[in-house]
Amino acid sequence: MEHELLITRLFNENLAGVANSILTMVGTHAENPAKPWTNAVAMQLLVTAIIIVVFAILRPRLSMENPGKLQHIFESIYGFIKTTAHDSIEHHANRYVPFFGTLFIFILFMNLIGIVPGFEAPTMSPSVPVGLAVSSFLFYNWAGLREQGPFKYLAHFAGPMPVLAPLMVPIELISHFARPLSLSLRLYANMFAGEQVTLAFLGLTYLVVPAVFMGLHVFVSFLQAYIFTLLTMIYVSGAVAHEH
Question: DSSP labels for the chain?
Answer without folding.
Answer: -PPPPHHHHHHHHHHHHHHHHHHHHTT---SSTT----HHHHHHHHHHHHHHHHHHHHGGG--SSS--HHHHHHHHHHHHHHHHHHHH--SSGGGGHHHHHHHHHHHHHHHHGGGSTT---GGGSTHHHHHHHHHHHHHHHHHHHHHH-HHHHHHGGG-SSGGGHHHHHHHHHHHHHHHHHHHHHHHHHHHHHHHHHHHHHHTT-SSHHHHHHHHHHHHHHHHHHHHHHHHHHHHHHHHH-TT-
